[in-house]
Design brief:
Strand content: 5-15%
Structural class: mainly alpha
Order of helices and strands: HHHHEEEHHEEEEHHHHH
CATH superfamily of one domain: MetI-like
CATH architecture of one domain: Orthogonal Bundle
Number of strands: 7
Radius of gyration: 29 Å
Strand order of the largest sheet: 1-2-7
Number of helices: 11
CATH class of one domain: Mainly Alpha
Length: 393
């Protein structure tokens, strides 16, 4: 007697209207079509209204004469609008880049102070955080500009601390450098000094890894860099000189000027952003396992060395993504400088619009400018985050 085995029947496919894969594809295609239709409708609506009002739709106006000057620069009103927007972008970056560096340093210091065993230090750091992060940045900007910097003495009664600084309601004038013939070669040698310092630091680190000998990489690297810079300065017969600000009548000569608008915007954004970074750092330090601190104590490390070599490196790895968000917020908040007439990108675009230039194109360029800066900051933060990630092996 023979047994016949019937082949298993393959599972029956559901009809297309019940197939999940087909439904997902159709939903995604429908979503893309809806977005494309919305963008097309907005574009057609915009162009129709522009044509009805006789407003140009191209970007040819960027080559036209600007018709206004820009505060704190040698920008001429005869230059094209594209140059004005570029100056506004550079002014935005001057606040954004300097502000990010200062806010990071101040935030780390305040965040560590929040966990200090000293009652006065801990409470002072807490007051700093609670007072600043609960006040809108626009209020801080207005406060530092209208209530602090513009209330400084006039140029007739300007303050001159140490005889090398001039402080008045016109701004802060500081000593600055002045280039002479041969300065290009000197700048190139300064770049060589930086490369040499980095190379020495890497060498000292590798020697420490191989022998355990204290590396002192910062001291060695800085020493090499300073030696190269000093020798280059002497060999090129002082290609860079120091210029000191001074008052001649009602005019300040020499040095470099920090405008009140720039100072107010920078101070307000640094303090505001640092208060958030401080809380991120505090939480990240507390997220480090307690055993790491106990291990540092067992090795006899002081509080500073334990924080520097054990706790903070791990805490900053945790804090990097959230801190990157604060960098983005700081750079975008530079646009608030428009209320105190700081010539950042939005302010320059508003001036051009006030002179009769088409608003849609200028606002679009402002959006692209801030979007580009944000994407670059995000890319750099993501790169740092990937470098700091622990890879399991």
């Amino acid at each position: 007697m023979s047994l016949s085995i019937e082949p298993e029947s393959s599972p029956q496919k559901p009809p297309p209207w019940r197939d999940l894969r087909i439904i997902r594809v159709l939903l995604q295609v429908g979503y893309l079509l809806a977005v494309a239709a919305l963008i097309a409708w907005l574009f057609i609506n915009l162009t129709t209204n522009l044509d009805r009002q006789g407003i140009r739709r191209d970007f040819g106006f960027l080559d036209q004469r600007t018709g206004f000057t820009i505060l704190g620069t040698d920008f001429s009103s005869s230059q094209p609008i594209s140059d004005a927007l570029w100056v506004g972008l550079m002014n935005t970056l001057r606040v954004g880049i300097v502000g990010i560096v200062l806010a990071l340093i101040l935030g780390i210091v305040v965040g560590v102070a929040r966990l200090s065993s000293n009652w006065l230090v801990r409470r002072s750091a807490s007051a700093f955080v609670e007072a600043l992060r609960n006040v809108p940045p626009l209020v801080l900007i207005a406060f530092f500009y209208f209530a602090v910097l513009t209330q400084l003495p006039t140029i007739d009664n300007a303050l001159t601390p140490l005889g090398i600084i001039v402080l008045s309601n016109r701004g802060l004038n500081l000593p600055w450098y002045e280039l002479a013939p041969g300065s290009g070669v000197f700048v190139a040698l300064c770049g060589v000094a930086v490369v040499a310092a980095v190379a020495v630091g890497i060498w000292r680190t590798r020697r420490f890894d191989a022998t355990g000998e204290p590396h002192h990489r910062v001291a060695f690297g800085a020493g090499v860099a300073i030696a190269i810079v000093v020798l280059a300065w002497l060999a090129l017969e002082r290609p860079v000189a120091l210029t000191i600000p001074g008052i001649e009548g009602r005019v300040i000569t020499g040095g470099t000027q920090v405008l009140p608008e720039y100072a107010a915007l920078l101070i307000a954004l640094v303090l505001y952003t640092a208060s958030f970074i401080a809380e991120i750092v505090r939480g990240s330090i507390q997220a480090v396992p307690l055993g790491q601190t106990e291990a540092g104590d067992a090795l006899g490390l002081s509080w500073f060395h334990r924080m520097r070599h054990v706790v903070l490196p791990q805490a900053l790895r945790i804090a990097t993504p959230a801190t990157g968000n604060e960098f983005l917020n700081l750079n975008k908040n530079v646009s608030l400088g428009v209320v105190i007439a700081y010539p950042e990108l939005l302010r320059v675009a508003r001036q051009a619009i006030g002179n009769g230039q088409p608003a849609p194109q200028l606002v679009f360029l402002v959006l692209v400018g801030y979007l580009g800066m944000s994407l670059i900051i995000s890319a750099l933060v993501n790169l740092a985050n990937r470098r700091l990630q622990l890879v399991e092996r």
